[in-house]
Amino acid sequence: MNFDLFSGEPQQQRQEILPGAFLLRGFALPFENELLQDIQGVIAEAPPRNMVTPGGLPMSVATTSCGDAGWVSDAYGYRYSKRDALSRKNWPAMPCSFFDLARNAATTAGYKNFSPDSALINIYKVGAKMSLHQDKNERDFSQPIVSVSLGLPATFLLGGLRREDKTIRVQLVHGDVVVWGGAARLFFHSILPIKVGVHPLLGKQRINLTFRKAL
DNA sequence: AAGTGGCT
DNA sequence: GGAT
C-alpha cells in the first residue's frame, strides 16, 4: 500500500471521475510483482496476437486472454470464445492474483462480489491505440468493468452512452485501476496512441488487463 | 455485421 | 461523425 509519509495513514486514492466510474490511483502497485509474473505465464501459453476487426483491419493492440472465456474479433464479429483459435485449447486459467486484484478493486469502487470470468490482456506498443468503443459483448451489464494499467502511461478517454457524447480524459500510469459500472457500464471509451517512452519494468510497452463477467 | 479503424 |  501507499502510505502518507507524514501521517502514516493510507492515502485515499479513489476518485469518482464520472457517475459510476472510479479511478483507483496506484491500486495495483501492491500486486505488481505477482501480476507481472502471472502475465508472463499466460502469454507463454496463449501468445498475444493482433486480431482482425470484422471490417478486415488489424488492431494495433495485441491481445490475449485468460479465464473461462476470451474476447475475440475476426471476420465473423466480436464475441467471447471459450477457446483460443491459435491453440484450439481453452484459454489459460485466470491466475488468483488477477481475480483477487479485480475483485478488490471493484469492491473499493462500490461494486461488491464482482466475479470476473474473463481477463483480456492488451499489449500496446508505442503508437498503438484503441478507438472509441463500448464493452457490450458481455451477457450481464450489472457487473462492472475493471481495467488495470501497467507499463507506459496512456491517455484514457471516457464519454457517455452515445459515441458523440463529450469525453473526459484521464492520464493513466503504471498501477492505476479504473472501474466502471452502474450508469457508466456502457460508456464509450478509448485509449489515445501510446507516446514514445521506456518504462523501468516493462520497457517500450503498455499492458492493460481488463476484467469482465462475460458469460 | 462491425466505428475495438482510418481518413479528413 | 468527431476530435486532433
TrEMBL record:
<protein>
    <submittedName>
        <fullName>Alpha-ketoglutarate-dependent dioxygenase AlkB</fullName>
    </submittedName>
</protein>
<dbReference type="InterPro" id="IPR027450">
    <property type="entry name" value="AlkB-like"/>
</dbReference>
<dbReference type="Pfam" id="PF13532">
    <property type="entry name" value="2OG-FeII_Oxy_2"/>
</dbReference>
<dbReference type="InterPro" id="IPR004574">
    <property type="entry name" value="Alkb"/>
</dbReference>
<feature type="domain" description="Fe2OG dioxygenase">
    <location>
        <begin position="115"/>
        <end position="215"/>
    </location>
</feature>
<keyword id="KW-0223">Dioxygenase</keyword>
<keyword id="KW-0479">Metal-binding</keyword>
<dbReference type="InterPro" id="IPR005123">
    <property type="entry name" value="Oxoglu/Fe-dep_dioxygenase_dom"/>
</dbReference>
<dbReference type="GO" id="GO:0051213">
    <property type="term" value="F:dioxygenase activity"/>
</dbReference>
<dbReference type="InterPro" id="IPR037151">
    <property type="entry name" value="AlkB-like_sf"/>
</dbReference>
<keyword id="KW-0408">Iron</keyword>
<keyword id="KW-0560">Oxidoreductase</keyword>
